[in-house]
Design a protein that fits this description.
Layout: E1 2-8, H1 12-21, E2 29-32, H2 41-44, E3 61-62, E4 75-76, H3 98-102, H4 111-121, E5 122-124, E6 139-141, H5 149-160, E7 176-179, E8 184-185, E9 188-189, H6 192-200, E10 206-209, E11 214-219, E12 225-230, E13 234-244, H7 247-257, E14 260-261, H8 263-268, E15 275-276, E16 282-284, E17 288-295, H9 308-317, E18 329-333, E19 344-349, E20 365-372, E21 379-383, E22 389-392, H10 399-416, H11 438-448, E23 450-451, E24 481-483, H12 498-514
Parallel strand pairs: 1-2, 1-13, 2-10, 5-6, 13-24, 14-15
Antiparallel strand pairs: 3-4, 7-18, 8-9, 11-12, 12-13, 16-21, 17-20, 17-23, 18-19, 19-20, 21-22
């Protein structure tokens, strides 16, 4: 099969690109997705996202043992279906802070320059103070339809400890607290497959191949990318460009498997080097989270979400506990006065959220998850001996990361002690062990923290010798090849990664069309 553009990965970025590039009827677009269709009922039910973990809709990655985390191997869920992780995530639409994008220091990627691309994607339902959001885009952004009563208590508690109520979370600064905006339409998940891909699939110039796992990029004698090999040796040809949108794990893995990376590392893995690009797979950064979890003496939490009454409310009106995204409210704070912007996020969940929600414990409880937004620790994605992928985030290799997470846990404890939240706060529940002192909390961070599912940086955009892609997202020194997904982010944002991934893909579509 021959196309003008071949896109690898039908996740958030791939769906955006497939839709935008196929707007031109003269252009043939091929989209390869390793997973299958997004037909599972749990994809539509917002609160049920953890039921998709460790299923055929999940890549089910595992890191190597983490020396800074009690030698634990950590589970990394990543979407493996149409919509990618936007089909299995907690639907939180959190752009980050102005400083995130200005801090990249790259032409075309300042906050003011990327803001129109956020807004192009957004179709805001509900409040829109100051016109922060776009209103005509394909991606529905709404308020939760049935927020929990304990979530309202958390918001009051934030005010009681002196935090600032934000009229809209996604303005230039997110310092303060607010309910979480979600990618939902009428109480149901609205993924990038819903927003972008499904309408575009009606076009005859767009071909979507599911069950098509890419193996390597193909090149001509001059080193130009000409296509992709997938599955059991089948091939697709790209007359213009190959675009990798396989994510922070998948995109560097494809580059490395195709001989693009550090020559010494490639030879050690049994791959003949094609192009020296030592930054491939390096610079891995992720949001790490640790929580304070308490029982709730009032039976109001999401532990009752699967009742027949809630099922009826969801099916008939798109309301009730099943519309919850679990992380119903957030606060962005600084770990200390020296921080120039928020470096911690507090995520409130009106439920006991432990072990990624895989084995929900019985009983009612509340969770305040503390997220390290700007970790100093950096890791790598490399080839495993069997040709697979080896993920080493090097979590907590920087001691300052532990110190800041401890500061966040102390703020979470302060919130639970406020007059508003105290009536809902009971005794410690695992994974929280009741730690009080800084030393005990530091130990808790090392033995109980988990990923918040936001890895970036393994195909980092830049201008220096470590850059994998340039500011136009072209792979350095490899004509006809780009990377468009969260892996190109040079640093983590002070938010979540779904929104910037969509923004990056929206801008990339313009860059590709212009070239």
């Amino acid at each position: 099969m021959e196309f003008d553009y071949v896109i690898v990965g039908a996740g958030s970025a791939g769906c955006v690109l497939a839709a935008r590039l196929s707007e031109d009827p003269s252009v043939r677009v091929g989209l390869l997705e390793a997973g299958g269709p997004d037909r599972k009922t749990e994809i539509r039910v917002p609160v049920a996202f953890s039921k998709l973990f460790k299923t055929e809709y999940d890549w089910d990655f595992t890191t190597v043992k983490q020396a800074g985390m009690d030698d634990r191997e950590l589970y990394w869920p990543r979407g493996r279906t149409l919509g990618g992780s936007s089909s299995i995530n907690a639907q939180m639409w959190v752009r980050g802070h102005r400083d995130d994008y200005d801090g990249w220091g790259l032409p075309g990627w300042s906050y003011d320059e990327v803001l129109p691309y956020f807004q192009r994607a957004e179709r805001r339902t509900g409040s829109n103070h100051g016109g922060v959001y776009g209103t005509d885009g394909p991606l529905h952004i709404s308020e939760l339809r049935s927020p929990n009563v304990a979530t309202a208590a958390f918001l009051r508690a934030c005010e009681e400890i002196g935090l600032t109520r934000l009229p809209e979370l996604n303005g230039p600064s997110n310092e303060g607290f607010a309910p979480t905006p979600v990618t939902q339409r009428r109480g149901r998940r609205w993924s990038c497959a819903d927003a972008y891909l499904r309408p575009a699939r009606r076009r005859p110039n767009l071909t979507v191949l599911t069950g098509a796992q890419a193996r390597r990029v193909l090149f001509d004698a001059d080193g130009r990318a000409t296509g992709v090999e997938y599955g059991d040796g089948r091939r697709v040809t790209a007359t213009r460009e190959v675009v990798l949108s396989a994510g922070t794990v998948g995109s560097p893995h494809l580059l490395l498997s195709s001989g693009i990376g550090d020559p010494g590392d490639l030879r050690a893995a049994g791959v003949e080097p094609r192009h020296e690009l030592p930054g491939v797979g390096r610079g891995l950064s992720d949001h790490l989270a640790c929580g304070i979890v308490l029982s709730c003496p009032q039976p109001v939490t999401l532990a009752a979400a699967e009742s027949l009454g809630n099922l009826a409310r969801f099916l008939l009106a798109g309301r009730g506990m099943l519309t919850s995204n679990v992380g119903e409210a957030v606060a962005f704070v600084r770990s200390g006065p020296a921080e120039p912007a928020p470096d911690l996020e507090l995520v409130f969940a009106p439920v006991i959220f432990a072990d990624h929600g895989l084995t929900p414990p019985p009983g009612h409880g509340l969770t305040i998850g503390v997220v390290l937004l700007r970790p100093e620790s950096r890791g790598r994605v490399t080839l495993a001996d069997d040709g697979g992928v080896r993920i080493d985030p090097c979590y907590l290799s920087a001691e300052s990361d532990v110190r800041r997470l401890v500061a966040g846990l102390k703020t979470a404890k302060e919130l639970f002690a406020t007059p508003s939240l105290k009536p809902y706060a009971g005794t410690p529940v695992a994974p929280y062990d009741g730690s009080e002192t800084d030393e005990e909390l530091a130990r808790l961070v090392r033995v109980k923290s988990e990923t918040l599912y936001h890895p970036v940086g393994t195909c980092a955009m830049g201008l220096g010798p470590d850059a994998v892609v340039d500011p136009s997202l072209r792979v350095v020194g490899m004509p006809g090849l780009r990377v468009v997904d969260a892996s190109v982010m040079p640093t983590l944002n002070r938010g979540h990664t779904h929104a910037p991934t969509v923004m990056i893909a929206e801008r990339a579509a313009d860059l590709i069309k212009a070239s």
